[in-house]
């Protein structure tokens, strides 16, 4: 499912795999494997693609409606 979402976002922005790969600092072959789900993609890459395509990723608590973006989280280990 995530591969289809990544492809959808890229296509909405009218970018080729080669163009997107360059923007997120990877190869066209790697991006293709993410989109076909033959290789697992980590959250950082998903977020980079979303940002390049003008999308934001939100997390929402179904019980209390709390909503935040990943960039609002401060990691203690970095």
Describe this entry's structure for a reader.
This protein has 78 residues and is mainly alpha-helical. The chain has a domain at 2-53: Orthogonal Bundle (434 Repressor (Amino-terminal Domain)). The chain is 46% helix and 8% strand. It has 4 helices and 2 strands; from the N terminus they run ααααββ. It has a two-stranded antiparallel ribbon with strand order 1-2. A hairpin with a 6-residue loop joins strand 1 and strand 2 (67-69). The chain is elongated, with a radius of gyration of 14 Å. The mean pLDDT is 92.
Which properties best describe this structure?
single chain; 78 residues; 434 Repressor (Amino-terminal Domain); 4 helices; elongated
User: How much is the average pLDDT?
Assistant: 92
Which radius of gyration do the C-alpha atoms yield? 14 Å
Give me the secondary-structure category.
mainly alpha
Strand content: 5-15%
| Low-confidence regions | none
Tell me the name of the CATH homologous superfamily of one domain.
lambda repressor-like DNA-binding domains
CATH architecture of one domain: Orthogonal Bundle
The shape is elongated
Order of helices and strands: HHHHEE
* Main β sheet profile: 2 strands, antiparallel
CATH-defined topology of one domain: 434 Repressor (Amino-terminal Domain)
């Amino acid at each position: 499912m995530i591969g289809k979402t990544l492809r959808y976002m890229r296509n909405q922005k009218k970018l080729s795999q080669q163009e997107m790969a360059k923007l997120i600092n990877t190869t066209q072959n790697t991006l293709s494997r993410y989109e076909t789900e033959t290789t697992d993609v980590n959250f950082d890459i998903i977020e980079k693609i979303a940002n390049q395509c003008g999308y934001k990723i939100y997390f929402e608590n179904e019980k209390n409606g709390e909503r935040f973006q990943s960039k609002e989280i401060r990691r203690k280990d970095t």
